[in-house]
Amino acid sequence: MVATPIRVTITGAAGQIGYALAFRIASGAVFGPEVPVSLSLLEVPQAVRVAEGVAMEIHDCAFDLLTDINIYDDPSKAFHGANAALLVGARPRSKGMDRADLLEANGGIFAPQGKALNDHASDDVRVLVVGNPANANAAIVAANAPDIPAGRVNAMMRLDQNRSIAQAAEYAKVSTAAISRVTVWGNHSDTQFPDLFHAQINGEDTDVFTSDMDWYEHSFIPTVANRGAAIIEARGASSAASAAAAAIGHTREWFNGSKPGNWASVAMLSDGSYGVPEGLMCSFPAVSKDGDWEIVQGLEINDIARKYIDASLAEIVHEREAVRKLGFIR
């Protein structure tokens, strides 16, 4: 076992996603069976007592890898020395709230967190924004944390990728393990584009998905894009365990590297690849090498894919301008 624990901060730790995350991180599901973990749980003052209950349960699990667990309502203290930060807590959209109100409310959360990360986190910190609207919130964090390398602030698209893989596997009548090279481009919203044009089954190229464009465009894409809403309608609450599993998968691959021949969907600040304007928080296909994401280059983007990607980019640009007008980014 390595001597120095990885310090992990989870925001919104009293919520359902944070609750599901904390136990799996403490158990070694992210960093491996030889790496000790120190957990910091960040909550708003009125939810600190609930977070204390979460900490009690984690203590009661007696995880071998957990060195300590601390609870904070101050981001500066919660992010102190953090090597990984999972930003789950966000202001949900309530009845009567328009998109501008939602962006303003979340800017008030994520701008201070970005500053606290910039000033107090470890130099090697990696930040995953889970709370929605994830791309806009991640852009706010990145803008307020100028000392953190741009590629080390991500918005989570892994849940959309997992949903895409599950739907594709069901259609092709294969296991999810057989599906690889699926990309979800753009924004974490219903404009996202789940791309199966480069997908493989058992490591081999296939046209089984794209040969039926009626299924692809009128069943597959809407199902993936609206899956979150369907879950809310069915269970009366938003995705929690599946979102936590996605955050675990993203973080594990980020720290430990991608499987050869496969890639992940990662929202990060664009470097101009694939015609995406530089500086937009957009999802790309990426591989993790030595703790950093590299955008997969050289993929052909056909006219159909371009149409969907451009529609999602337009939404990202619109949100960025709205956030800029609110003063959270320059």
- Along the chain, the helix and strand elements come as EHEHEHEHEHEHEEEEEHHHEEEH
User: How would a crystallographer describe the biggest sheet?
Assistant: 9 strands, mixed
Flag low-confidence runs. none
Quaternary assembly: single chain
Helical proportion, percent range: 40-55%
- Output the number of helix runs: 10
Strand ordering within the main sheet:
3-2-1-4-5-6-12-13-14
List keywords for this structure.
330 residues, 14 strands, single chain, L-2-Hydroxyisocaproate Dehydrogenase, Chain A, domain 2, 19% strand, alpha/beta, three-stranded antiparallel beta sheet
What does this structure look like?
The protein is an alpha/beta fold and 330 residues long. The chain folds into 2 domains: 6-155, 3-Layer(aba) Sandwich (Rossmann fold); 158-319, Lactate dehydrogenase/glycoside hydrolase, family 4, C-terminal (L-2-Hydroxyisocaproate Dehydrogenase, Chain A, domain 2). It has 10 helices and 14 strands. The protein starts with 5 loop residues before the first strand and ends in a 5-residue tail after the last helix.
Write the topology of this structure.
Layout: E1 6-11, H1 16-27, E2 37-42, H2 48-61, E3 66-72, H3 75-78, E4 84-87, H4 99-120, E5 126-129, H5 134-143, E6 153-156, H6 158-172, E7 179-180, E8 183-185, E9 193-195, E10 200-201, E11 204-205, H7 213-225, H8 227-235, H9 241-256, E12 264-269, E13 281-289, E14 292-295, H10 303-325
Parallel strand pairs: 1-2, 1-4, 2-3, 4-5, 5-6
Antiparallel strand pairs: 6-12, 7-10, 8-9, 10-11, 12-13, 13-14
Helix pairs in contact: 1-9, 4-5, 5-10, 6-7
